[in-house]
Amino acid sequence: MTDSKYFTTTKKGEIFELKAELNSDKKEKKKEAVKKVIASMTVGKDVSALFPDVVNCMQTDNLELKKLVYLYLMNYAKSQPDMAIMAVNTFVKDCEDPNPLIRALAVRTMGCIRVDKITEYLCEPLRKCLKDEDPYVRKTAAVCVAKLHDINAQLVEDQGFLDTLKDLISDSNPMVVANAVAALSEIAESHPSSNLLDLNPQSINKLLTALNECTEWGQIFILDCLANYMPKDDREAQSICERVTPRLSHANSAVVLSAVKVLMKFMEMLSKDLDYYGTLLKKLAPPLVTLLSAEPELQYVALRNINLIVQKRPEILKHEMKVFFVKYNDPIYVKLEKLDIMIRLASQANIAQVLAELKEYATEVDVDFVRKAVRAIGRCAIKVEQSAERCVSTLLDLIQTKVNYVVQEAIVVIKDIFRKYPNKYESVIATLCENLDSLDEPEARAAMIWIVGEYAERIDNADELLESFLEGFHDESTQVQLQLLTAIVKLFLKKPTETQELVQQVLSLATQDSDNPDLRDRGYIYWRLLSTDPVAAKEVVLAEKPLISEETDLIEPTLLDELICYIGTLASVYHKPPSAFVEGSRGVVHKSLPPRSGSSESAESPDATPSGAQTSEQPAVIPTQGDLLGDLLNLDLGPPVSSPPITTSSVQMGAVDLLGGGLDSLLRSDVGGSPAMGSASFTAPNAVMPASLGAPISSGLGDLFELAGGVGTLSGSYVAPKTIWLPAMKAKGLEISGTFSRQVGSISMDLLLTNKALQVMSDFAIQFNRNSFGLAPAAPLHVHAPLAPNQTVELSLPLNTVGSVMKMDPLNNLQVAVKNNIDVFYFSTLYPLHILFVEDGKMERQMFLATWKDIPNENEAQFQIKDCPLNADAVSSKLQGSNIFTIAKRNVEGQDMLYQSLKLTNGIWVLAELRIQPGNPNFTLSLKCRAPEVSQYVFQAYETILKN
Amino acid sequence: MMRSIRASSERKMIHSLFLINCSGDIFLEKHWKSVVSQSVCDYFFEAQEKAADVENVPPVISTPHHYLISIYREKIFFVSVIQTEVPPLFVIEFLHRVADTFQDYFGECSETAIKDNVVIVYELLEEMLDNGFPLATESNILKELIKPPTILRSVVNSITGSSNMGDTLPTGQLSNIPWRRAVVKYTNNEAYFDVIEEIDAIIDKSGSTVFAEIQGVIDSCIKLAGMPDLSLSFMNPRLLDDVSFHPCIRFKRWESERVLSFIPPDGNFRLISYRVSSQNLVAIPVYVKHTISFKENLSSGRFDVTIGPKQNMGKTVEGVIATVHMPKAVLNMNLTASQGSYTFDPVTKVLTWDVGKINPQKLPNLKGIVNLQSGAPKPEENPSVNIQFKIQQLAISGLKVNRLDMYGEKYKPFKGVKYITKAGKFQVRT
């Protein structure tokens, strides 16, 4: 008899029948019934209705039955917490059972029940289990601490469980060690403020010892934990590396990759002259190659990571090209990744082999793969100049095959080759032209048209060729139309006599018969150019083009550095930082590679380090907003109410790059990965206890929304007048109004608390959610006496900016929770950015110029400040009061130009050019910043300051 | 009371697992956290449809709220649902471990076997993972916690009413050697090592080696009583410079003395795996002479393949099978085999030639006519020939075990080493 019998159902109500069986007196029947229930569960049937009946079977001395009941409970404990609590007495009793298996089961299942109430029952048994004589129980209990922490973090801290957990790292049993580390790193990750894995040389040493002792899974947790540590010098980095390298020989590929991550990161600190550096490089290659002989799924993840590693340190695998050669029965996702890495590794030394392979691939069956192989040949030509000729002839061979998609891909890449090596391979144009008719893909057509236009003077029948495309002009895709327009204009400029009619035809098609504004505009521009000044037209249209860059697909260096810190994670598979795509990732701390020690290295970095920017302040980097509210004070508010999240990856990456990388290079100090940074954040001592909170979710959220709308506008002068942040009707009678101010370097939140209820209010406490600039209360909220009905108290709460950082939207959004003896209330408010402008925000003139140039133009933002009656000097002094410093003033063509700088608390510099025309109340403000996201808010601050 | 559901509680590694067969039925689901609806698998099915071939389904799929990380084993997709940033290799390794465990327990990892043992499967899954942390994944330990089904036991169980669940704790958990049970008893004490090497190679048209490497493993079957401490040494350990070890091996000993020193798990396990890549060290035991050509306009082609021995150290090459994925345009093939038999599947276009042993005096040959679809253009691609073979009593890398010493126990064990070389992914381009 097999378990499949449990799947047979009777006609009568199945649940009903099971219920009867579960309540049977016969033990055997009960057991069979529970098995049936579990069988139903495995196929996704909802049998939660049987909860009470199954729980009734729990009081038994039959271990098998008990275990089965526990299986059921673990599945439903989470969704049926209130019912699960019925079983609590049995759990507590089972925690005392002489059989360790049962003790472990009980403590484990209790942890799955996510009800605050259960925690009171859980503490004592858990404490005992953590010290149990049996390691199986201890390791289960270790995990349970993480579960409990998730329900009630404060309780776990108060009960000292965290210390016990830390002690378990030195347990004699490797499984216990593994789970203790796993639990600790989970807790640390979900509450970076908990100051838990404050990694110091001692605790690192402990972890490294545990690394040798614990199971493979525990090793992964330990290695990932180590990767977050920032060694104090290169010597420490080396000694950690030495102790981690044996892990490269582990059979578990996840262990290997986590070890690679640690090594790649710490290597950054080692001087390249060191012998050990070379040794380490050599040691990294074999394990990476070995990953490629594993199952295809593992290969895929390994390849995505190798792609990063190869970009960061090409020397590691430069001799291993061959292992990336594609086998015909590799899955397609492996093939495509291998191809990508082959091109990255291509060099003069191995290009012959690579080309031979690529040519082989171009005759394979899989169309996607073939296309990519053809493109790869083109990329090789562009990357390795010496090979260009061979690549072109390979492409020509491929064109001869006449396989349609091969020909089209080849033409697209040949166009790129022309752009890289102009006037070198034009002899092939004739061959290309033969294939004109077979081109049916827009990209290929556009490429071909570009070639014809570009080399019109050498193609006798260029006019005929282009004319042939013109017939179906309106059916072509936009890129083909645009290309055709340009090509014909080029042709006209080169051979004006024969092609006048043609150019007129295309101009009228583009300008008169087209609905596409891009096409129309381009048509008009050409038309105007040609009709007013043909010489100028020639200069513009036939201007020399910049050569295309060698590798267009390299990951941008700051992002690459960040991704290296995420080797082995999903981020490394998607090549995006986790903040960009993991839903609910709570303010992921932005990680960065450690700076290399030794001065020899810093000289090679091109990004000029502004001397004035050296600051002891931790530059807070702004991770993208993740789970906004879920995170608020570790309270549970249900699903995130994220305001329109930035979803497109390009925007994300850009943002991270600018805020993260830009800052890194600007400040050159260690940013992330150090848990120490988070440690200072939750400073409010009267921490609000989640257990005691009871505000209904819906209304809490409602408040936030309405408030956000209400406070949305900035008001007032330097210190804006107080506005109502929390109306009394939303907060059971408590009304809060307030504003922000900055005085001699300290920020404060000025509050007015009014009691509009009939009862006395006391026990006030305040906390902030993580926010973009790490604003946090620097002291607890002191309300000296209980607040009597109708009494108002005025307070000033000092703030600092060392709290946890999470990017908010809008950037200056601050979510606040205020607690009193009645309840907890939430509101959000927008703070004016100028409270973050620091006193030493005046940049050196030279530095200003260099920095202004250095920041790319895309980062420049322009704003209009309307109706401001002040003159330049008044503006300058007014702004200075708010730490916006004028560095230079110049008069250009009757306009006053003010060059200004300011610096935010997290080290972001903003440079400004303010143009003031005497007599005109409208100013033009241009802002340049490596983190352009702040520009808009800086502009708001300007407006606020100037208009008040 | 109100807030028992919280966003932050979702951040665990493996949230749920779905097992899906090739026809797209979800036949088992297991949730370690809250229950996730089956509908999440729709994204997987979508990807599967796009991939056309089951092997080509990408292992990491992102959906609006989850990530699906899957493996494909024994015609079953193991699809795990992930909600936060996790190391995908961790998940994939774990899923493979789950599949290995099923294989180990039920003799096969098939839908039927899993369905027949749902309760055990559930117990195993629960035991293997708690709150996203792998708990026990070592077969030795699992087997003590949850007894594998045997026909005899289920008969006995149904008569006596006893259970298949261990009611004591696995002893291995108490020691620092989690891979070994404490009390192991045997009357015949035996230790066997199989040195198995697979050659992965790509041979180009002209017969020269594009790429070759050897993937070797030493699989062990050790049935020794008590707590034996073994040392295995090699004649030429320098061959092993890229090695992955079972956790039982003392790395330091290996680093300093190049000796494998370990307290073995009980039963079958993989001691090490290694890779020998330096190309001059990789002998290629067979060669393939081939003419596969198609004539334009004639709707036919020629096929002529001969396989011969090359560097085989005087051993017999046996178990030879050649498979060729013929181009789509091939309708059927009319061939004559000088030895062995061939089949051509007109649907998948796969030609399989079971050659058997290679006799160096009379080389096996397969030749004849290829019929193409009339009117179809001449196929552009050149099919690769995939070769399988076996050579007994030879490790092609030259690796040789020197001696095995046992400490810690008094008895004299029986020891044996076997060598075998096989083709791995051995491809000849034509």
TrEMBL record, chain A:
SUPFAM superfamilies: ARM repeat, Clathrin adaptor appendage domain, Subdomain of clathrin and coatomer appendage domain. Residues 837-947 form the Beta-adaptin appendage C-terminal subdomain domain. One of its GO terms (cellular component) is clathrin adaptor complex. InterPro entries: AP_beta, AP_complex_bsu_1_2_4, ARM-like, ARM-type_fold, Armadillo, B-adaptin_app_sub_C, Clathrin/coatomer_adapt-like_N, Clathrin_a/b/g-adaptin_app_Ig. It is found in: Endomembrane system. The gene is AP1B1. Residues 718-828 form the Clathrin adaptor alpha/beta/gamma-adaptin appendage Ig-like subdomain domain. Keywords: Acetylation, Membrane, Protein transport, Transport. This is AP complex subunit beta. SMART domains: Alpha_adaptinC2, ARM, B2-adapt-app_C. Residues 586-620 are annotated as: Disordered. Belongs to the adaptor complexes large subunit family. GO terms for biological process: determination of left/right symmetry; heart development; intracellular protein transport; kidney development; vesicle-mediated transport. It holds the Pfam family Adaptin_N.
From TrEMBL, chain B:
It is found in: Golgi apparatus; Cytoplasmic vesicle membrane. This is AP-3 complex subunit mu-1. CDD domains: AP3_Mu_N (cd14837). Residues 188-429 form the MHD domain. Keywords: Cytoplasmic vesicle, Golgi apparatus, Membrane, Protein transport, Transport. GO terms for biological process: anterograde synaptic vesicle transport; intracellular protein transport; postsynaptic neurotransmitter receptor internalization. One of its GO terms (cellular component) is cytoplasmic vesicle membrane. The gene is AP3M1. Belongs to the adaptor complexes medium subunit family.
